[in-house]
Amino acid sequence: MLNNQGRPTTPANDAAPVDAGRATFTGNRGLDLEEALLFEIGRREVTGVDLPEPEGVKSRLGAHARKTAIDLPGLSEPETMRHYVRLSRQNYAIDSGLYPLGSCTMKHNPRLNEKAARLAGFADVHPLQPVSTVPGAIELIGELGDWLIELTGMKAVAMSPKAGAHGELCGMMAIKAAIKARGEARDVVLVPESAHGTNPATAALIGFKVKTIPARADGTVDVEAVKALLGPDVAAIMLTNPNTCGIFEPEVAAIAEAVHAAGAYFYADGANFNAIVGKVRPGDLGVDAMHINLHKTFSTPHGGGGPGAGPVVLSERLAAFAPVPFVRKGETGFELVEGSDADAAAQPFGRMTAFHGQMGMFVRALAFILSHGADGLKLASETAVLSANYVRAGLQDLMSLPFPDHPSMHEVLFDDSFLEGTGVTTLDFAKAMIDEGYHPMTMYFPLVVHGALLIEPTESESKASLDLFVATLRDLVLAAKRGDLARFQDAPRFAPRRRLDETRAARAPVLKWERPEPAVAQAAE
Questions:
Q1: 28 is a domain residue
Q2: How many other CB atoms sit within 10 Å of the CB of residue 316?
Q3: Could you tell me how far CA 113 lies from the centroid of its own chain?
Q4: Do 327 and 190 lie in a common domain?
Q5: What is the number of alpha carbons within 13 Å of residue 344 lying toward its C-beta?
Q6: What per-residue confidence (pLDDT) applies to 489?
Q7: What is the phi/psi pair of residue 93, to 5°?
């Protein structure tokens, strides 16, 4: 159904003008298979398995027992396998092509990591088994923590946070505990306007007031603007470095000095650590706490909402406030320390999670670190920065750079001013990339740049891969400038689904599949 506020959601075969005369009876196009929902394939009256009714079992559900059939579709094993394999073919993934999402660091996940994580001694560890039975797992967590401390120049590490935002929460709770221990009532956190949205959200979640630091015209934070906001009520600054515009903050050390002089703490968002590993240690810049996204920097998979891992490194100023449990090296090796086992100097703010971190991600991250070594990690950072600047050099004559005076770090940021007068929007441009076989880059973020297009190729891509990507974007830009609007406004034409009617989807989402009325009943009506 069409309306005047968006475009319909339809199978690609049904609507694209370019497909006229090429529609197939099945809806399939060669190996691009049109896949129905499980409920449309399956039959409610059958099941793929036959289980006998248990004898002598009395239900304990009482009034909560189901009173109607579960109404799940019954499928055979081949039907089930085909369904999910066909769906998997419609996913875009780092294993199928370059993933240029800026700020997300979609780097290759080496199979060596996966092999290590599947070793029985790690894959079979259960969080409820006695600590005495998992010394190897504890040693691995301790060794990974030591690497993270060394690479960041910090004093301690908390391994339990489950993701980057969870790590932010951990670091800010340590800061809050430190302020309380000093007997102070600081309740303001400074956040640059270009920061990840989780930064102000985390600060507000635990009771801080947030004040925004405006960005300079060149996309960086001015130390004088920070000093103007500092006072006895400021608890911390939350700063990303390199920042979300892909720029290394040139005054970061001076900012840290000013923050510390005012009695506050420096929290660094570690989302972009992949750009500086082996080159700069955040602790040497004056950072007091920083979360590390293991998936962004140390190649563990983006888990689709989980599993995640966001260890937090802490400076000497905050080390005593690390949450429990934590791993420390004792006389007999690594040991897991609970609250009652901590030494007298420790002042842990509490426990963040029931279990200590995410074992599978720890194994993968340590495998990546050990296989690269210190020199290899440094080379990975250098290559990530080189890749971003290579893309920048290949596109800067056709696409517009909002901050041309700063070299890019691990990601390059363009704005959409190069599309002015073409009739092509930023969204149109991104949708056309799908037809070319690429996932679009990060769009409309950071918010300080209008129509932002943020590209992060990472160190995973070869020169040939980057050359094809650059050539593709150049071709799209030239098509937009010569007025080929159909290529953009009809895009994507070759994806399993056409462009969403996004307005209708947001205002009237269909969240539950309803079985359609039988055709005979509809005809009778």
A1: no
A2: 11
A3: 19
A4: yes
A5: 0
A6: 92
A7: -150, 165
The model's pTM is 0.88
Most confident of 159-173, 319-333, 340-354: 159-173
pLDDT digits (tens, 9 = 90+) for 387-409: 999 999 999 999 999 999 999 99
| Cross-sheet strand order for the sheet of 156-158 | 156-158, 312-314, 289-291, 265-269, 234-240, 188-192, 209-213
pLDDT for residue 7 is more than 50: no
Domain that holds residue 445: 374-507
DSSP state of 414: E
- Structural domain count of the chain: 2
Domain annotation covers residue 30: no
- In 3D space, the residue among 312, 304, 293 whose CA is nearest the CA of residue 361 turns out to be 293
Structure tokens at 91: 């996913």
Look at residue 264 and give its three-state secondary structure. Answer: coil
Together in a domain, 342 and 242: yes
Query: Would you say 353 and 373 are in contact if contact means Cβ atoms under 8 Å apart?
Result: no
Q: How many CA atoms lie within 13 A of 160 on its CB side?
A: 21
CB neighbours (10 Å) of residue 395? 21
Average pLDDT over residues 456-472: 97
Size (the chain), residues: 525
